[in-house]
Amino acid sequence: MIVLDTHIWLWWISNPDYLSPPAQHAIDLAVSEKGIIISSISTWEIALLVEKGRLELSIDVRDWVRKTEDLPFVRFMPVDNTIALRSVNLPANFHPDPADRIITATAITMGLPLVTKDDKILNYHHVKTIWN
To answer: Are 118 and 111 in contact (CB under 8 A)?
Structure first.
């Protein structure tokens, strides 16, 4: 099982060529094991980017998310109280972006690696990451 960062979810669905070989391999393995986790905060983040005109999808964002929800190997993880509290109390210095904090806290709480290309997360040694 793995957790996908928001940009990885976008790339996996829309531009899989952007994924590194290790990221693509981890995703392929997780698909076969029905173990892809996406934080619900990523849905918020994508909808916000679409609303602000910083992201354009080929279909309505609601339909785009619904298509992912329909995949049998994907599970959306809600931001529960444990994840919310952990995101505020991440060990060491972690950058202040709320979505990144919640996604990272989700991976830590679930004990799963996080697939990301975000250098701020890749350099944060308190969560296992997959990219290179």
So the answer is: no
* CATH value at residue 29: 3.40.50.1010
Report the chain's terminal Cα–Cα distance, integer Å. 18
Residues in CB range of 19: below 8 A, 6 or more apart: 8, 11, 12, 27
**pTM of the shown model:** 0.97
Structure tokens at 70: 């329909």
**Which tens digit of pLDDT belongs to each residue from 6-34?**
999 999 999 999 999 999 999 999 999 99
Tally of structural domains, the chain: 1
DSSP string, 105-118: HHHHHHT--EE---
Tell me which residue of 41, 53, 58, 50 sits closest to 6, measured CA to CA: 41
Summarised one tens digit per residue, pLDDT across range 31-55 is: 999 999 999 999 999 999 999 999 9
